[in-house]
Amino acid sequence: MPVASNYTSQSVKQFATAVLKGFGCNENEADIVASHLTDANLTGHDSHGIGMLPLYGEQILDGNLVPNQEPLLHAPMGAISVVDAKRGFGHRMALLALDHAMKCVPEHKVAILALRDSGHVSRVGTYSEYCAARGYVSIHMVNVVGHAPIVAPFGARESGFSTNPISMAMPLKGQAKPLLDIATSTVAFGKVRVASNKGEKVPPGCLIDEQGLETLDPDPMAQSRQGSLSAFGAHKGSGLGIFVELLAGALSSTDTVATMEHLPHGVINNMFSIIIDPSAFDSRKAIEQRTEEFYNFIKSRQPAVGTPAVLLPGETEHQNRQQRTDHGIPVDDETVRQIVDIADRFKLDPTAINALLTKAS
């Protein structure tokens, strides 16, 4: 079974930055993407952390991801902004698109963004945090096109859409609190990949095989996309996943997973975002007070037997960020090997790249 080591967050970011520069990203883009990926690892979302680098490298080699791209920022129509990312790195494209859309907020008190044809935007909760830091409520939905669907709709034995995540947050003292960041599948595909790299099984209820029967083996899905992920909550998660596809794909973009061509290593994202200035409803102070009162009310509920505490959305990520900052980010050897291998294909020195990782004390 592959071994995992804990590395300092600073060295993980240095490692990712060096690889991204090797991919052709300039200093600014490499820093944005590496920061995003490292923070995903810090929050416990290893599925969206530096383990994504091999896929990004493959996409660049295939011509489906463009370093240092400049997005096309269409002039807003009222409160609606459309941005074509032209397959640039989604981590940077999404921030530029949100900045563009938020210029509408002072006039309209709301902005609606359609980000099209973007490279992988990774952890969607990042964008809820970005908006909350500016005092805005936000909702973000992302569909995934460019490859075959991997999530089975309720009642189906075949896949019909992808993991189609949703994130939303309330701003409280400059933070996203609470913060909801979920896939509409029971688990994200990246968590299946991480389980495969670690030689572990997936939890029950996450995967079905090609016969439509439950399986705990992540390898067929992780390595050759055989079988399907399940939607969370049966028809409820399936219904949300379908509407994410419609809002981010049919409404905001030009393709859904039903129509877009399948690309080698293709992961193309479209994002539908709603950004709201709470001051349109009441004073920010009053809204924050009500938010905090409700937050504390939920926290005061007696935990169920065997549960140490009642957690609100986003608390687990906050706790993980603190714990991993103090004790290091666990990265399994197979993931490191895959990253070093793709770096080698871009003519980077594998030994020098590997040496950038420093184990946490």
UniProtKB/TrEMBL annotation:
<dbReference type="InterPro" id="IPR043144">
    <property type="entry name" value="Mal/L-sulf/L-lact_DH-like_ah"/>
</dbReference>
<dbReference type="InterPro" id="IPR043143">
    <property type="entry name" value="Mal/L-sulf/L-lact_DH-like_NADP"/>
</dbReference>
<dbReference type="GO" id="GO:0016491">
    <property type="term" value="F:oxidoreductase activity"/>
</dbReference>
<dbReference type="InterPro" id="IPR003767">
    <property type="entry name" value="Malate/L-lactate_DH-like"/>
</dbReference>
<protein>
    <submittedName>
        <fullName>Putative oxidoreductase YbiC</fullName>
        <ecNumber>1.1.1.-</ecNumber>
    </submittedName>
</protein>
<comment type="similarity">
    <text>Belongs to the LDH2/MDH2 oxidoreductase family.</text>
</comment>
<dbReference type="Pfam" id="PF02615">
    <property type="entry name" value="Ldh_2"/>
</dbReference>
<keyword id="KW-0560">Oxidoreductase</keyword>
<dbReference type="InterPro" id="IPR036111">
    <property type="entry name" value="Mal/L-sulfo/L-lacto_DH-like_sf"/>
</dbReference>
